[in-house]
Amino acid sequence: MTNSQAPRDIDTSRPHSARMYDYYLGGKDHFAADRQAAETVASAYPGIFVCARENRAFMHRATRVLAREHGIRQWLDIGTGIPTEPNLHQVAQSVVADARVVYADHDPLVLKYAERLMRGTAEGRTIYLEADVNDPQTLLDAPEPAEILDLGRPVALSLNALMHFVPDAQDPYGIVSRLLDALPSGSALALSHCTPDFDPPTWRKVAAIYDDAGTPVRFRSRAEVARFFDGLELLDPGVSVGHRWRPDTEPTATDAEVSLWTGVGIKP
């Protein structure tokens, strides 16, 4: 099932954050403007490719941990981006075949690829919703989530590499709080967020590139990222650099290369 609204015209002449991220991951869904902007970022911060890969790897591990160890069977993934297999629902359904996932993104580009998000197990269900994280109430009031998610049971709120695209003026902490308030006890927040902590001059350059491309960003410190988990019970090892959150193998990248704070918290 996909959103019935037709995608709006997509401008391929200007770089786009989702297509740039696809480029960092080695995907094929990008254009010349995206490649040029991504290479400009890479010239300032060569670790961007490592950061993108480690962000995906964190999402995979966090999803498996929540499914295996905390009984989560439902996910609300906001800021889905261009699908890159395995997608979140594929990871979740590899652990629990009946996992249910609602993907949400406000980007018409993602809608073009939404069919990829619908391929899952026969037991599980997935749906794509066009919605904006900056308007959480409209997202929560939409009929699609209620078709898939049972809000009487725990839901994992997945916000991967999203909130650094929400400037302070948009009240990012209020947005996350509003979304979590709608979820029952036992629900979870899995969040990753780029940070300037390990190399502030480099990340000022990266921020300028995105800002100049028309995509405002706000990269945050560890303390600022930890605020998103206020009131939640953080799973070990707490707010950690992405490759150090329950790694499957011994980390080889440096913290500066990854420059990504991650964490998973449970709602009491």
Number of discrete domains: 1
Mind telling me which CATH architecture this is?
3-Layer(aba) Sandwich
| Overall geometric form | globular
Roughly how many Å apart are the termini? 33 Å
How many helices? The count is 11
Assign the structural class, choosing from mainly alpha, mainly beta, alpha/beta, alpha+beta, or little secondary structure. alpha/beta
Assess the beta-strand content as a share of residues: 5-15%
Please give the radius of gyration in angstroms.
17 Å
Describe the structure.
38% of the residues lie in helices and 15% in strands. It is an alpha/beta fold and 268 residues long. It has a single domain, classed as Vaccinia Virus protein VP39 (Rossmann fold), CATH 3.40.50.150. Strands 1, 2, 3, 4, 5, 6, 7 and 8 form an eight-stranded mixed β-sheet that branches. Helix 1 (17-24) crosses helix 2, helix 2 (32-44) packs antiparallel against helix 9 (200-212) and helix 3 runs parallel beside helix 4 (88-95). The longest helix has 23 residues, at 48-70.
